[in-house]
Amino acid sequence: MEIAPFFVGFWLVPLGAYLIYINRKVKAKIAEARLWPQAKGRMVKIERTGLGSKIVGSDDYRQYRLDMQYEYDVEGETYKGERVVFGAALLVKDEVDAACKKFPEGDDLMVYYNSQQHDECVLLLDHPGGKNDAIKYVGYVLTVVGIGLLIFNSGWFL
Predict the structure, then answer these.
(1) CB contact at 8 A, 142 and 136
(2) In sequence order, which residues have a C-beta less than 8 Å from that of residue 115 and are 6 or more positions away?
(3) Which candidate, 10, 22, 114, 131, has a CA 20 to 30 Å from the CA of 154?
(4) Digitized pLDDT (tens) for each residue of the chain, 158 residues in all
(5) Which phi and psi angles does 8 have, rounded to 5°?
């Protein structure tokens, strides 16, 4: 029995299961937020920052961080929010650029907010890159690979 692949498989299975669990929690939060009311708000600040090194031969970075702050009014009180989507952050250039274009600084926007807890809010319910299930699929792959490593390196299969 090879111990290193068995050990890797031993850790990949719970990691994959955890990612699947996180995806289910995010999907449940999105489903809940679809029932939230919307309030009119305003984009106060939106800024993209390049992370890491630049791509060779380009002025672009491999990843970006999107910092935004918006305000919205509920029942005469002003709240501030920073969340764009539930789940994975926007890191890819196209997603960050799309968010900057959709929500220019100073423009009006509509904010989904929790009617029970007004400071809980989000701008978009679906990930702009269509990545709502990306974490789930990574979790499935890690779990299957982990189970394979456990089975083939445990001696059960021989």
Answers:
(1) no
(2) 36, 37
(3) 22
(4) 678 888 899 999 999 999 999 999 999 999 999 999 999 999 999 998 888 777 777 778 878 888 999 999 999 999 999 999 898 777 788 888 888 899 999 999 999 999 999 999 999 998 876 777 888 999 999 999 999 998 888 776 65
(5) -60, -45
pTM of the model: 0.79
Q: What number of other Cβ atoms are within 10 A of residue 84's Cβ? A: 21
The answer to whether the CB of 72 falls within 8 A of the CB of 113 is yes
CA 29/CA 138 separation, integer angstroms = 20
Q: How far apart are CA 11 and CA 107, in angstroms?
A: 47
CB-based contact 40:75 (threshold 8 Å): no
Amino acid identity of 132? N
What residues does 136 pair with on adjacent strands? Answer: none
